UniProtKB/TrEMBL annotation:
This is Tubulin--tyrosine ligase-like protein 9. InterPro entries: TTL/TTLL_fam. It comes from Trichoplax adhaerens. Gene3D superfamilies: ATP-grasp fold, B domain. One of its GO terms (cellular component) is ciliary basal body.
Amino acid sequence: MAMLSSRPLLKRAKTVNTDRRIKTKGKQSQNDQTRITINTSHANSSFKALSNCFKYLGNGWHEERWDILYVKSCDIYWHEKSLTSRERFIQGKVNKFPGMKEIVCKAKFAYLLNRLRSLFPKHFSFYPRTWIALQEMMTEVMKLSPKELNSTTFIVKPDGGSEGRGIFLLQGLKQLEALYFQITEAVVIQKYISNPYLIDGFKFDLRLYAVLTNLNPLETYIFRDGLARFCTVPYQIPNLKNLRQTCMHLTNYSLNKSNPSFVLMNNPHEGSKRTISSVLKNMENLGHSIDIIWFAIEQLVAKTIIAMLPSLKIEFDSWNAIHKVPDNKFSCFHILGFDVILDEDLKPHLLEVNANPSLNIEHERYNKRGISSNVISPVDEYIKCQLIAETLKLVQPSFKASKVKISHNTENIEKTTIQFSNIFPKLSEEYSELRIIERACRIPSKEICIADLDVLFINMTRNYRYGYSCKAINTVHNNGKLLDFDGFYEILLVIARKKFYSDESIIEHIMNMIVK
């Protein structure tokens, strides 16, 4: 598999210094002006992985353990969970975007993806058909023939669930009708991918990681490795007898780790949880093109970020306004977990996005007496320490980065290859930020070109600002430079009628989407 360039990455450290804390008060020393400080007081379960990374990053990186609510600013703040309204950041970067957790909650996320899928079905076909409302789903599935309905499997997921809790499969009209009486919380219902690609007869999914480093301009990177999580019961096509076999159908580590068949190896490239690179190498040996698979995965991640971007910008701007954050004094980055499954044709399907993917590198192990203890998981340490170290180097302050030397202690690192592949701004160089969706979804065509769009926008802006619109356009919200909602709505309809003039159903979809 082709990589970008060589770079040393973290190898398992023999010892971990968990008490390396800086508690200097008073005036800043000269070293404070060049060292990069990371506040880990809220890192929680990811603290051990972060501590291991400091050994690789070198002496220029320093850990702060002050409570961020009361003490001086740091360059980077590391949170395990989402931000709350209590946090006050003087400056620096925090590893969470405000509102991300709410955006990727299953119902909200399904709404965002369904909206774009209704507009551009071919480009968002990677997301399985997902319903938020049970009545909507019933109306749609009742159009299927009895044979199709009985052979289609659905998976029900709690809106705010995690680690596989509350997930179950159902099949057939009787089970669908019974769902009305089973539901006690908000759920989404998704069409189950019943033809997964198997390795040695077992189903697996891919936990991929993307790092969002900026919204404007958009900057996103995908980690070129990750975790392949295997079921612990050989796969069978879903039927009424095996629907409740969670370790056959659900790949969640939290569910499969307690199965006696779960295998944790010292080699990170083997076992029930292993590296994605080892899985892809196995597939490459069977004659499959890894480059094609990675390209499809990158497209999936890029289009998903595009779908989330408007909501993320609103949340970020609202946070800054509420907390009265000065311009350029506070910024965010975010590690996202993408759960992807390959079907038998090697097409990737997005199952969900996790706002707080686990960065814990420990595994719970039971001895013969049934007593549990936490031990280092080789595969988690191998992947997550690389991910964190490379992410920190991506977001380090540029004015300090040139003064910090990376450690080259061969006892703690091994030679390998850089693991980040750029998605944006690679795409941003191709087209401006305001045309991301326009070109990603290929709005320009023989019916309407880029020049047409530019002329349309100019004319519509002129009309709405000075012509037939009598509304107060020049308000504090747009400063006389932007269209109001009615103008935006009309532009979309003009584009839709030009591009899809022969298909009224698509135009109707667009109108319904905007109204909703």
